[in-house]
Amino acid sequence: MSVLISAIKILIFPGILFTVVMGVLLTGINNRLVARMQNRVGPPILQPWYDFLKCCGKETIVPRHAKKGIFLNAPLVGLVVLLTTALFVPMLGHTMFSTGADLIVVLYLLTFVSVTMIIGAAASGSPFAGVGLSREMVAMVSYELPFVFVILAVGRLAGRGTDIGVTFSLARIAEYQAENGAILTHISMIPAAIAMLLVIPCEIGMHPFDIAEAETEICEGTLAEYSGRPLAMFRLTHCIKVYVMSALFSAMFLSGFSTGILMVDAQLQILFCLVVTFISMTVPHAVCARLKVEQVFKFFWTFVAGLALISLVLVWFGL
């Protein structure tokens, strides 16, 4: 029976099926809201799923000078790693994997997902993909620093009273918020929350931080040579990352809310993900122009990192 329950958790909830469904829905809602804010009709909410199925039915073309094995396997590895990452992020207190350093594991796995895209682009042999992967590396360097500061700030606040004074366990962070209220309600953590909201679209590669896939500049960049099923897997990975990042924000800053009624709590969790998606992805996409490469780096290492560092300093001194 325990094996069956574990299989259900991995395959259905809060595992693969739930993660994929939420990723597709959040991406579709985001696209529809962006269109409405720009006075357009917009695509159907399930358009990301239709695009995935359409790509699966297309021919996979491998460039002549590509490293075929790496080129074709990179999207699959990235998708599997991201689905594994989702199993560390709690949904209604349910996770398949839980360690004493969940946030560190999630940070490394998310980085590895971006690395698979870089490796796949490098294996394609395309000059457009080469420019895209260099931009993807700049984006990674840009958002990783403030992301680490946010994790340290949250871990320090939730880890007070522990042996080392800091925790990276999402379970411990959830327990702290259940006892003391959502971390977002602490004034000292508001700058870190804002920083995290700005990190999310860059981590996902969404406008205005989509410098690696700037269609009008470098022909899809890292994905320039991809088609068929490998492209479908990259597109699905993008959708899933939308859910994973919004759920991670909810787990880090908003997991203190609970009514004690499972269905109501589930709706609250989904609502939190929708709100995070709207604030961090929809609004910037609708109102901002794409930033230049050097602007992204400067923005994250000054303003965003500064916000996260303010919270880290305040929390470290007990404020």
What does this structure look like?
- It is a single chain.
- With 319 residues, this protein is mostly helical.
- It has one domain.
- The protein is 70% helix and 0% strand.
- The chain contains 12 helices and no strands.
- The protein has helices at 2-11, 16-37, 47-56, 68-86, 102-124, 127-158, 170-180, 190-204, 215-218, 228-253, 262-287, 293-316.
- The radius of gyration is 19 Å and the shape is globular.
Helix-strand blueprint:
Elements: H1 2-11, H2 16-37, H3 47-56, H4 68-86, H5 102-124, H6 127-158, H7 170-180, H8 190-204, H9 215-218, H10 228-253, H11 262-287, H12 293-316
Helix pairs in contact: 2-10, 2-11, 3-10, 4-5, 4-10, 5-6, 6-8, 6-12, 8-10, 8-11, 8-12, 10-11
Q: What characteristic shape results from the CA principal axes?
A: globular
How many discrete structural domains?
1
Radius of gyration from CA coordinates: 19 Å
User: Proportion of β residues?
Assistant: under 5%
- Binned, the helix content reads 55-70%
Structural class: mainly alpha
Task: Pick out the low-confidence regions.
Answer: none
Order of helices and strands: HHHHHHHHHHHH
Query: Ends: how far apart?
Result: 47 Å
Largest beta-sheet characterization: none
Secondary structure tally: strands: 0
Counting H and I runs of at least 4 residues, what is the number of helices? 12
Calculate the mean pLDDT score and round it.
Answer: 89
